[in-house]
Amino acid sequence: MTTPGSLVWRLSMRWRVLVDRALAPLELTHAQYTLLANLYGRPERPSQRGLADRTGLEPLYVSKLARALEAAGLIEREPDPADTRAVRLALTERGRAVTGEAVGIVRGLQERLLAPIGGPGSPQTEAFVATLEKLLEGDPS
Predict the structure, then answer these.
(1) Global pTM exceeds 0.85
(2) Using 50, 70 and 90 to split pLDDT, how confident is the model at 102?
(3) Fold of the 16-110+119-137 domain
(4) Judging by beta carbons within 10 Å of its beta carbon (0-12, 13-18, 19+), is residue 34 exposed, middle or buried?
(5) What single DSSP character describes residue 65?
(6) How far apart, in whole angstroms, are the C-alpha atoms of residue 24 and residue 13?
């Protein structure tokens, strides 16, 4: 019997694999894209911890990703002057260009994935998104 949990898991894994494949030419992974996309178009420099909270990624993993993205010249990491434990992140000029290209790729992929339920902006997609948000807000413990 197929359960909702197994379907959510399979969809999540399928999405990650599709994004990884689509972004491979840019030498980005889904996780790296998630971090970059959350920095894209934001004037503020969020902390690594703030990005971990916003993306659902573990703080230690965000730190590892940030170091790799810094080494690739896509982001800048700066100590927070108000909190010596915190590190603030921002896209470099190259990072903005690569992320802009990646966002376009992922949007196209998302349109194709959502096409069976009407595509982005359709009532079915809006209901699907609302359902997912409701599930993410709930506390199953």
Answers:
(1) yes
(2) very high
(3) Arc Repressor Mutant, subunit A (1.10.10)
(4) buried
(5) H
(6) 16
